[in-house]
């Protein structure tokens, strides 16, 4: 009896997921940075496949594309009054914050699902930033640091939410364009696509793309890391050389 | 025209950086100071990470100061003996400064120490120079010759301390101890505040040691080249924060600016030179003071935590 019950629950959890399959693809898995790189955008394509038994849903599908950049250890500090001075006093650490975070959806995320599901599944910018493990938690006191964190990142164009970022071309095929600003750092970016219908998640996929320096930019980066002393001496040599050249060029006597 | 900086990992406008290099180079060449205290805030304002900004602008200082030193050598306006003593004391001071930096950081008061010393240094040095140059202005306008502070042959007592040396080029015969003390203090402040200290060196040589204006700039630049060369290599080794593309752009702008600055500086009357330098220092000091006192528009700031701490 118990085994049957467990089986039923198992069936219950898997049945909807097997009804619809989500297939996604990125326009580019390796974005190259060269000397005239000024940011780029990457297209995501998605298709929903239904098996024969599943009937078409009346409400249609919604899609949420979440892109997370390389993780950084960030600190947000707050200036507070200290006598006549304004000094950095309290701070809050964000040990695993993505350097870049964008959430693209096919319609406002609040209309798509419930608050609880968003928080549990970390769907949407607010839910991701508000997640308890996003900071080194100190209870309620860190709320203003989370707000400030989002505000500062938003201002730089590194955190964004676009409720018209995903377009359905047909009821089963959608497309989204991930905007990458120039200051988004090199590294691995995770692209998570979640398919929704009637406020529940039907399917999820995760893909990645890499933002890498190439050619001269890559060589400089490697030299600075692996040949520190030689790199430093070489830079010093260049500086002295240019200084000397200038003194020769501009010599008047 | 934009170019991607491989270490700062962001694109910048080539023309903007060239212009900034030229502007700071002009001031640097004119007054014989490094200009780091001007360049670093400008670069950070552009969004370049602070570590990269501090480390990279040392390359520009090396380049523009090399030009100045070579020019000074050609005009025989460099006191090599005095300069060497300053370099020696400065290096010892830097070591002490790095140690003090670590102590203050452990005490958790580093930010406060840095900002307060910035404001005090700039205000005190700038204020003293302004007072002095206004006094000179006043005297000359009244038609009186500027009265030397002390009569000939009567020098400040600290110049008579033991270990006296003759500095032919500076036309001075004085004790080495106060010079070493000055260099030590500048090296300490430099390591602590991330500045070269030219703006302390120049007025100190002018007023405390009464070195002739023509020699001051060359000698100060000599000391700056030596200490920033060491700093540049240390930054590359310890922090990997030197961006060679950014450095090159700053250097190209800087060497041109420094040339014209040096020429403009030579054509300035001595009292006007001191007056302008005083105003520059006071303005920078005031800017830092305002930052401390005025209620910030955005009280929050975000920073990437260093891996070590």
From TrEMBL, chain A:
Parts of the chain that traverse the membrane: 229-250
Pfam families, per database record: Alph_Pro_TM
Superkingdom of this protein's organism: Bacteria
Key words of the record: Membrane, Signal, Transmembrane, Transmembrane helix
Leader peptide range in chain numbering: 1-19
Name this protein carries in UniProt: TIGR02186 family protein
Species, as recorded: Microvirga alba
TrEMBL record, chain B:
Keyword Cell membrane annotated: yes
Record InterPro entries: TM_pro_TauE-like (IPR002781), TSUP/Inactive_protease-like (IPR051598)
Localization: Cell membrane; Membrane
Membrane-traversing stretches: 12-39, 85-104, 110-130, 176-209, 215-234, 241-260, 272-290
Membrane-topology annotation of the record: Multi-pass membrane protein
Keywords for this protein: Cell membrane, Membrane, Transmembrane, Transmembrane helix
Entry GO terms, CC: plasma membrane
Protein family: Belongs to the 4-toluene sulfonate uptake permease (TSUP) (TC 2.A.102) family.
PANTHER family xref list: MEMBRANE TRANSPORTER PROTEIN MJ0441-RELATED, MEMBRANE TRANSPORTER PROTEIN YTNM-RELATED
Name of this protein: Probable membrane transporter protein
Organism this protein belongs to: Microvirga alba
């Amino acid at each position: 009896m118990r085994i049957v019950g467990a089986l039923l629950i198992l069936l219950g959890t898997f049945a909807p997921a097997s009804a619809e399959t989500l297939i996604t693809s990125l326009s580019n898995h390796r974005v190259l940075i060269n000397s005239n790189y000024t940011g780029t955008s990457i297209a995501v394509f998605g298709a929903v496949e239904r098996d024969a038994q599943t009937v078409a849903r009346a409400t249609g599908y919604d899609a949420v594309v979440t892109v997370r950049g390389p993780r950084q250890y960030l600190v947000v500090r707050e200036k507070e009054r200290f006598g006549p001075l304004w000094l950095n006093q309290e701070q809050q650490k964000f040990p695993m914050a993505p350097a870049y975070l964008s959430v693209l959806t096919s319609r406002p995320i609040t209309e798509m699902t419930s608050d609880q599901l968003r928080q549990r599944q970390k769907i949407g910018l607010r839910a991701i930033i508000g997640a308890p493990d996003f900071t080194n938690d100190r209870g309620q006191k860190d709320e203003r640091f989370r707000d400030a964190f989002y505000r500062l990142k938003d201002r730089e164009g590194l955190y964004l939410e676009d409720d018209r970022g995903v377009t359905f071309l047909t009821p089963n095929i959608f497309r989204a364009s991930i905007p990458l600003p120039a200051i988004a750092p090199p590294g691995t970016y995770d692209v998570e696509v979640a398919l929704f219908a009637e406020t529940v998640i039907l399917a999820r996929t995760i893909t990645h793309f890499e933002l890498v320096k190439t050619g001269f930019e890559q060589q400089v980066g490697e030299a600075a890391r692996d040949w520190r002393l030689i790199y430093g001496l070489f830079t010093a040599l260049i500086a002295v050389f240019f200084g000397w050249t200038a003194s020769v060029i501009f010599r008047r006597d | 025209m934009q170019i991607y900086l491989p270490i700062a990992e962001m694109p910048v406008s080539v023309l903007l950086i060239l212009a900034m290099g030229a502007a700071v180079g002009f001031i640097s060449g004119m007054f014989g100071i490094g200009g780091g205290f001007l360049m670093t805030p400008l670069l950070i304002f552009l969004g370049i990470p602070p570590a990269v900004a501090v480390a990279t602008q040392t390359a520009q200082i090396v380049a523009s100061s090399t030009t100045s030193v070579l020019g000074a050598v050609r005009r025989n306006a460099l006191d090599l003996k005095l300069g060497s003593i300053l370099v020696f004391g400065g290096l010892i001071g830097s070591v002490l400064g790095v140690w003090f930096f670590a102590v203050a950081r452990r005490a958790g008061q580093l930010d406060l120490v840095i900002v307060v010393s910035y404001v005090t240094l700039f205000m005190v040095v700038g204020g003293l120079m302004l007072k002095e140059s206004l006094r000179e202005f006043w005297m000359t306008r009244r038609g009186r010759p500027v009265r030397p502070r002390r009569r000939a042959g009567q020098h400040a007592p600290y110049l008579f301390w033991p270990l006296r040396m003759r500095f032919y080029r500076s036309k001075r015969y004085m004790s080495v101890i106060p010079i070493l003390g000055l260099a030590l203090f500048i090296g300490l402040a430099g390591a602590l505040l991330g500045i070269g200290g030219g703006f302390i060196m120049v007025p100190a040589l002018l007023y405390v040691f009464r070195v002739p204006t023509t020699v001051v700039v060359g000698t100060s630049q000599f000391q700056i080249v030596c200490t920033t060369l060491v700093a540049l290599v240390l930054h590359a080794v310890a922090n990997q924060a030197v961006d060679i593309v950014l450095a090159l752009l700053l250097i190209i702008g800087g060497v041109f600016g420094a040339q014209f600055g040096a020429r403009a500086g030579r054509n300035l009357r001595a009292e006007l030179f001191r007056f302008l330098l005083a105003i520059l220092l006071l303005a920078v000091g005031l800017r830092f003071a305002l930052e401390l006192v005025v209620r910030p528009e955005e009280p929050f700031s975000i920073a990437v935590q260093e891996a070590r701490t």
